[in-house]
Amino acid sequence: MPYGQSGSFPVSAPTPSPATPSLLAASGLPAGLHLGPTTFNQATSQWTATVSGTDSAAAGTYTASITANDGTSASTPQSVSITVTRAPLTITANNKQLIYGNPVPAFDAGYSGFVNSDSTSVVGGLVCGATDASGHP
User: Fold this and answer.
1) Exposed, middle or buried: residue 96 (CB in 10 Å: 0-12, 13-18, 19+)?
2) Do 47 and 26 belong to one domain?
3) Where in the sequence is the domain holding 43, given as residue range(s)?
4) Which residues pair with 63 in a beta bridge?
5) pLDDT, tens digit (0-9, with 9 covering 90-100), for 16-52
6) Are residues 108 and 131 in the same domain?
7) d(Cα 48, Cα 24) in Å, to the nearest integer?
8) What percent of the chain has pLDDT over 70?
């Protein structure tokens, strides 16, 4: 699930007692995601729900724990691995013109794809510059 984008996926857990209504609970979900209402799947004897939302957790892999609880007992926790990927960001160098004898213009770029109030402050590791044969900018 890309950072800053909304999405959803189903999760399930076996119920302690198929005849008794159960609720699913989740812990360890990445920030911005939540567990929706549960439904019982007769074919698999499992309770299912949907994890959805707009992810605001840092890129990485998270392990959530899903359990079904019928009010008397809880199922064995089911682990769900959720991978948050980096949001795509496009950086485009702005065209510059150098006229002989004039100072070298400042290098700059345009950005598109920031999410969750991110700005250029989260961009790092980029080096942009040019020098002449003497090492001057």
Assistant:
1) exposed
2) yes
3) 6-84
4) 81
5) 666 666 678 888 999 999 888 887 777 777 778 889 9
6) yes
7) 8
8) 83
